[in-house]
Amino acid sequence: MPLLALWILWVIDWAGTLAGLVAFAHAVMQRADAFTAADRMTKPVWLGITGGATAAMLLFGMYGAGMIFWLAGIVATLVYLVDVRPKLIEVQRGGQNW
């Protein structure tokens, strides 16, 4: 594999891991009742999902035999960041002001 391709894979791998850490840190800092108010799973469940996803991305690279675990981790992280996080922010801010 060319050196440039390896660098690109390395950057994507670590960017995914960093996103997992951000998602886990965000879940830690949120109130537990905000998760149920946003009609999402409970805080401990999301802490387990984001923590497990981050651990999977740290332990397995996005290349090789463990790639399926890395992919599952990035999907779980992106679900939290794209779906759950905006709902939590909306619930804690009191919804739309318009």
Explain this structure:
The chain has about 100 residues and is mainly alpha-helical. It has helices at about 5-30, 30-35, 45-60, 65-95. The longest helix has 27 residues, at about 5-30.
Which structural class is indicated by helix and strand composition? mainly alpha
Contiguous helical run count: 4
Strand fraction band?
Answer: under 5%
Alpha carbon gap, first and last residue: 53 Å
Shape type = elongated
Cα gyration radius (Å): 16 Å
The biggest beta sheet is recorded as: none
Overall residue-averaged pLDDT value: 92
SSE arrangement, N to C: HHHH
| Total E-strand runs | 0
How helix-rich are the residues, as a percent range?
Answer: over 70%
Write the layout of secondary structure elements.
Blueprint: H1 3-29, H2 32-37, H3 43-59, H4 67-93
What is this entry, summarized?
This protein has helices at 3-29, 32-37, 43-59, 67-93. By secondary structure, the protein is mainly α.
Key features of this structure:
98 residues; 79% helix
